[in-house]
Design a protein that fits this description.
The chain is an alpha/beta fold. The protein is built from eight helices and nine strands.
Length: 235
């Protein structure tokens, strides 16, 4: 019955509203600490757009990471879970961008470029919607190259949490604990980057995201979640 309910528009809206209430409760009852690279902090406090990158397993509290009042367009797949999470944090999202690296990568890329041209920042989980876990797909690299907008890697962790046995090891935060937000140094993709340069930037973003995620987990006393094994070329 629950699966049938979540396949309906009304069911998805109800689940999204409930998830939003839970997210607001957790944000309000968590004692947050912020650890930010100075250049990243300056970018997020300014008016210019940035590309905010986060791993899929930290989707639940992206709203805690992103500064209130800074417009953001969020890349979302049309998968049910993504729709529910999109509704849950809709008050923080200025514009949804429908598409994903797996199902409709060109729509996602065009939506990102359009939002950036309009002066909106863009948020994306570059390993979503289906993985592999904590491995960066190249869509945001192409968007950064073509727009000239820097990428800011971000992560959060909390002291009270559960980790799901899903492909991404999705983190479920609980209220009334401590939390930390970690922002890494901005990454600029050269406008003249060739295929080798694009791959170097992709790996740089992947390494930076894994570094901030591990830092956040360690600060909360957790063993960092490991990325999925790298896929061999051609696999």
């Amino acid at each position: 019955m629950l699966k049938r309910l979540l396949k309906s528009d009304a069911g998805v809206r109800a689940a999204g509203a409930l998830a939003g209430a839970i997210v607001r409760l957790i944000n309000a009852t968590t004692r947050w600490e912020r650890v930010a690279d100075p250049a990243a902090a300056a970018l997020l406090a300014g008016d210019q757009p940035v590309i905010g990158a986060f791993w899929h397993n930290r989707l639940m509290l992206i709203s805690a990471v992103w500064p209130k009042g800074k417009p953001i367009a969020m890349v979302q797949s049309e998968h049910g879970d993504s729709c529910i999470l999109g509704i849950a944090v809709s008050e923080y999202i200025t514009r949804p961008i429908w598409g994903s690296s797996r199902r409709n990568p060109m729509a996602a890329l065009k939506g990102m470029l359009r939002a950036l041209q309009d002066g909106l920042s863009v948020g994306i989980t570059p390993d979503g919607p289906r993985g592999p876990r904590m491995r960066c797909r190249p869509g945001l690299i192409h968007a950064a190259k073509r727009s000239g907008v820097p990428i800011v890697p971000g992560a959060w962790s909390v002291s009270r949490r559960s980790v799901a046995r899903s492909w991404d090891r999705f983190i479920i935060a609980w209220p009334f604990g401590r939390g930390v937000i970690v922002l890494g140094a901005p990454i600029h993709v050269p406008a003249d980057a060739d295929d080798v340069g694009l791959e170097a930037s992709r790996r740089q973003v992947e390494d930076a995201l894994n570094a901030v995620a591990a830092d956040a987990d360690r600060r909360m006393g957790h063993v960092p979640i490991e990325p999925a094994p790298e896929r061999k070329a051609g696999s």
